[in-house]
Design goal:
The protein is an alpha+beta fold. It contains six helices and seven strands, in the order ββαβββααββααα. Helix 3 runs antiparallel to helix 5, helix 3 runs parallel beside helix 6 and helix 4 packs antiparallel against helix 5.
Amino acid sequence: MERKIWKRSLSSFSGFPCPRCRKSNLSMVAKDFIRVVPKYMAQGIEQGLEGEWEQGRFSGFLKCNATFCGELVVVAGDYWEREFHQYDETTQEDVAFTDRTYSPQIMHPPPPIINIPRKLRAEAVKQIKLSFGLLWSDPGACANRLRIVVELLLDQLGIEREGEKGRRKNARLDLFDRIEILGKSKPGHEKALNALRYVGNVGSQGSGRRRRSGLLRVVRGYLAS
């Protein structure tokens, strides 16, 4: 899967993987895409406050290209549209063309960012799927869901949540402690799990763009490999 399709601003929706069959991609159903400009924005455009561009809301459907599947994903959010003019020397006329950008806030059911391991337990799978949808509306919450997945995965691998820490024998172990224990008993997973732990910590910090960029870098870089 290409990282560029997971950007906040998109010119199209081609390339997203189908959330149902996972074997094909989604395509825009052009006839079902609706773009509406709210009245207050339209008034600004009419008064010349916005120049040759508009901003509004959109909704529509993405459809799986596989004939045996045909899953539909509803998508909605904001859009921007700017009109440009270019002089055509052949026709000696101005030619107008439009540049349109979409910023989705909702995708349901959400396209998967990564492939989910088959051996992962049901609750962890549930949290991963929830994170897919939160990527669009709240990247910070998405990161926190993935942190929960790390905790659940450690449970599945038999790493206790309580244990010896300093002078205490039954202390509550934080995520760093548990990953460290896993590294000693079953080395090889620490890098990916610590990366997700870091993203979960950053989930409540920084701007939305920073959160999203860091989240995608870790998820696609460490988990997709």
